Every structure is written in structure tokens, then in C-alpha cells.
Amino acid sequence: MTEYYTRMGDGRRVTMTKEQIMNDIQAGTADAADMASIPALNANDIEHMCEIIMDQSRVVGVEPGHEVVMTYDIGQLDFTGDNGNSGNGVDMGRLEAALLHERALGADTFELAHSDYSIKPVKPVISMEMQTMEEIQAEIIAPYFYGAMPNMGLYYAPDGPYGNPADLMREFKIEESMASSEAAAEHLARDIEFVTTRLQAAGSDGFNFDTTGSAGDADFVGTLNGVKKLRELCPEAYINVGAAGESVMGIHGMIEFEGEIAAGLYPHQQAQLVAKAGANVFGAVCNTNTSRSLAWNLGRAVTFIKKAVEDSPIPVHVDMGMGVGGIPMFETPPLDAVARCNKAMVEIAKVDGV
Question: What is the pLDDT of residue 33?
Fold first, then answer.
């Protein structure tokens, strides 16, 4: 029986038969459908995905004319960062990195980023970031944004002024834990307003909120409140909100945005709130299971994202990279896996961008 080279969720290369690949796709889509109460992929989608995975070309792609917009997070760090951060360890400045992405790599968009890539560390150096933004805007043609994670975990002890909700819950201080989350979310929203409005004044074309909800549902709500304020103050700004996972972690459990409880929302539901907050684009996410095959992970990821695309009132640029979108969780993901996952997202999930 013919076997095909493919990958596991940790990047390991394995061989599988068509029957094994089909079975894993079916199991992956069934898992997503059961978790989010959404439709599983149909037989045609599953067969199409199987053909993409079985294609033995080193790199696969979409047909000419079916390309989608490529957006980037983490800015210049994909050049200057180390391999543990999916970087290449090449020493260069932020201007050089931006121009290389635009002129050599053909990036549709790019962004400026702080080395910590979080809202909080940007605040004390905002004047320097504003100056850098203005300087690079004078050189670059492609839409140039600023990017950062909300990263509300930095607002909890020992790094921030608020008690850590996890520690408080272990002490059975549930109300105190919830109050701490709410206070941190309000602080995050204020910092988002401070940072983003100043960068917009310096010429930024917009802002990319990356890994929203990484610290749970209060992180998600705090970010959306910040996005709402940014939209009010800068109505022309481009705003992209990328999620942290396929489900919003319910650390608070009851916190709401516009009357909707955030905990437990899946991509098709997250998209509704992101649009309501005023964002232009939603970055939908599905996390990779390292112990399962590429076929299983991709079947699961495309199921979540396809439903998000169908239900979202704004364009969906699916997050694809190390450990998300079906792509293996590996420092520098293998190109054959990346290409197959991207192709499936475009042709089956019908995403607007990657």
C-alpha cells in the first residue's frame, strides 16, 4: 500500500497511507465540530485536504489569481530574533528589516515592534517608538503598522500591581481573583489607548493586537475595550485583532464585552465581538496538538476557521505559524507543512488572508 511523507504536530517526519490520512482528517474535524458545536467538514473538503497532504511536491500553492493578503506579526524579530522565537539571528536594524520584507520578500504589510512585543513595555519608551515609526514611514511604501501583544499577564504580580488570579484562586479567594482580573483589564485598556493613539499620531497605518486573550477572558475583554477606544479616537486606523487560541480561557469566567460573556468563545463567536469593538480584521487561531498528525491538526483547524469565515462580518486573516493553524509546533516550522496548511486554509476555509 502506498505511503506518503507527512508530518506530526511536533514537526517529525512520518509516512502514512491515504486511509490513515483520511481517518485522521475525519477525527480532527469531528473533534472541532464537537467542541464548538459547528459543522464538520464535508466529504469533498476532506478529500480535497487529503489530496493536498498527499501531494509529494516539496512546496504546494494556490492557483494564480487565488492568492490572499499576507500579514505579518512580530515585525523585525523574525530576522533579528533567535531560533526559539522563529527568528534567524541576523543582526540588523528595524528599518533594514522593514525594507527587506517589502522589497525582497514582497510582504503585503509589515509592522514595527518592540523587542518584548507587548503593550506594557512600549509605554515607557513611547517617544522613541514614535520617532522610529515616523522615520520608517518616510522610507516604506507598504502599509506599515505597529504590533504588540496585550499580554495582560505582565500586569499581575510579581511583574505588575495586581494580584495573580491563579494564586488567589488557589487560596479560594475567588472574588478577589475576579476583581484583580477586572482591574488589570481596565489598566490594559488605558495603556492600549495611550500607546496606540500616540503611534497613530506618529504616522502608523494601524495596529496589530497579537495573541489577544493569552491571559484569559479578562485579557480578551480588556483588549476589545482598548480597540473600541482606539476606533473612537482614530476612526481611520486599520485595526487587526489576532486571538491566542481557538477558545477564550475562562479564568475570570463571567467578564463581559457588550453584554457577551467572553469565556469559552470559539473563533466564529470571537469574530462577532472583535467586529463589534471596531476592528477591521480578525486573526482566527487554532492551536496545534504536538502528539497528533498534520492531517488531524489541519482537519481540526480548517473546521474552526471555515465556520469563522462564514460567520464573521469582517475579513478573517487566519494565524498561521509555529504551533497554530495546523502547522507543527517547531522553532522553524518545515516548509512542506507550512505550504500545505496555507493552501488548505485558502482553498477550503476560504480565508481572506494569512
Answer: 98
How sure is the predictor about 236, in pLDDT bands with cuts at 50, 70 and 90? Answer: very high
Q: What is the pLDDT of residues 123-162, one digit of tens each?
A: 999 999 999 999 999 999 999 999 999 999 999 999 999 9
User: What is the distance between the alpha carbons of residues 247 and 243, in angstroms, rounded to a whole number?
Assistant: 9
- Burial class for 200, CB neighbours closer than 10 Å (0-12, 13-18, 19+): buried
Q: DSSP secondary structure string, 230-273? A: HHHH-TT-EEEEEESSSS---SSSS-EETTEE-TT--HHHHHHH
Are 353 and 317 contacting, i.e. CB atoms less than 8 angstroms apart? Answer: yes
Query: Phi and psi (nearest 5°) for 338?
Result: -60, -45
Return the domain boundaries, the chain. Answer: 3-347
- Contact, 297 vs 288, CB < 8 A? yes
Integer Cα distance of 83 and 106 in angstroms:
22
Q: Which CATH number fits domain 3-347: 2.20.25, 2.60.40, 3.30.310, 3.20.20?
A: 3.20.20
Sign of CA dihedral 123, 128, 131, 133: negative
Q: Which residues contact 89 (CB under 8 A, 6 or more apart)?
A: 80, 81, 82, 83
Global pTM value: 0.94
